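Reading is simple: each integer encodes one residue's backbone shape. The lines below illustrate:
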Amino acid sequence: MNVVPLVRDPHALDSKIPRAEAHFDLVVVGAGHTGTTAAIAAAQTGASVLLIDEHPVPGGLIGTDVPYFFGGRATAAVQQSGRMLEQVFGTNPDLEEAFALGVDVRLGTVAWGLYVNGPAMRVLPEPLLGIADGESAIMVGFDRLLLATGARDVVLGFPGWNQPGVMGAQGFAALATRYEALASRRIVILGSGALGLETALLALAHGIEVAAIVEVEDAVQGPAARAAQVRATGIPIHLGTTISATKSGIDGVEGITLVPLNTPPAKAGAQLRSVDGGGQHPNSNPIDTGPRPSPGGNSKIDLVCDTIVLALGATPATELLDAAGTGQTETITLIGDAGTATRPDPAYLQAWATALAQHAAPETIVCQCEEVTRADLLGVQPPHYLDRPHAMAARSLSSLLNDGPAHPDQIKRLTRAGMGQCQGRRCRDQVACLLAEQQQVPLSAVPVASYRAPVRPVPLRILADWQERGDMAAGWDVWFGIPTQWTPYAVIGTPEEAEHVAGLGGNMHV
């Protein structure tokens, strides 16, 4: 019998992807209490463990609201890298035990990409996790991966939200506790759920005045016991209320104007329902007690504050899994808040989005990074730095919907909303809410825009492998998209390349 020899395609991806620079029995992403505890437990069994955490976050990333919505309320202390590192260690003493057990602890290191074999890819030598610090980026392999990545804030916009002083509850907590670098002195909190009530108590514990808690619903949304704690502090809770305007100054937010829900923008004739001392409505949850307050007060309330904290809820930070196109497996597991946190009720979020949009003008910003306005998004217009011909100006979300349901990823590609440095963390939920409203469908029916690696901003100088070895490069081609204009990788920079290019009648070089 003749045996046909196997012919290896030198241009195929198979075997071209190098193995990871390092391999561990267990990799843990997130060095909070849950992640550190898991790393310690694994190390005690003799396993090789890598524990990484993006904290301390460089001051530059804090300025772009990554990984939390810091809102321009960090002090200059975040620019001192040594101090920031001390703060991270000081708030997590378990890190010392991890070091003592031989855990490879790398702080200030982000996980920017996760790659696993699946239906769309079968050529990886092993599961790979891309990590980067301030100097370099590498790929690490693993037998098991635990994602203790926590949760991110759900952000919705309103008039004036795109100025310093508007931030998320997660960013507020990180600056107040982990970094001790919060510049806020008097805050207003949006949302009366558990997160909002806890944020109020956290602020008071750090000597920060809480001017009010604002809620669009007619009842406090958080647990009665926690609400009772807030009630005892005397913090006002304004129910059935929305924002009509914010006052701006040289440092950002200086005040906020509240009006009753459904008040026309040009008229605030209804009375504002408020509860002094944080009182609750009896139907906010089954164990709530207390009389329902009578309407009273002025038609609007002006409050002085330097910070507005969005505490509408948090959602699990599962960007790595989302970008990889995979879910949890026997190898990859979400732990801590990344696995247990739940998104706010969609109907509640939509109620907030509708209330906050009541006084939002068409020029109100939706995406801060790309400066996409409500008018741009609803008109499905390209970025302002591109031409908008007449045919393009005639396009709108309504005309787009004639071809079927709109997807946030489609809107992102057409308007760039969500493509900026924060990678959609500040506008992802707003876009979904706007699409739900315009399509007249429940928010739960609209998917959240997808993620793509790198899921953290990483400079190209760090991602680029300038020292790629010849044996790793063998067989790769550089492709220009035109069948006759390509140069084999192996001949780049050689006389043969010059002959090849001359033979094509061009002068294209790589």
